[in-house]
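Q: What structure does this chain adopt?
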Amino acid sequence: MLRRPPRSTLAWSSAASVVKTTQQIQEMLAARSGRPAGDPEMRNITGAIVGVVVSVWFDWAKDPDMDGPAEIDRALAHLAAGLPLDYTPG
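A:
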């Protein structure tokens, strides 16, 4: 069974930071759309955005020479296009 790490650990601090940032993104998206932050659609959109960015971060950590910000821009453009498998950045 998985247990939550002690609050004093770096892992817990980092996870709490990701949760807070995700909530802030969800609140900003909801405010811009005029929908409640608790809407499932807001949760799903926020999760997709955060998931795309985190996946680029993992690749960037493996390849420090990657242009991370440019790759995040490309990944978010792919998401905005609906994630087609035959996507060609514009």
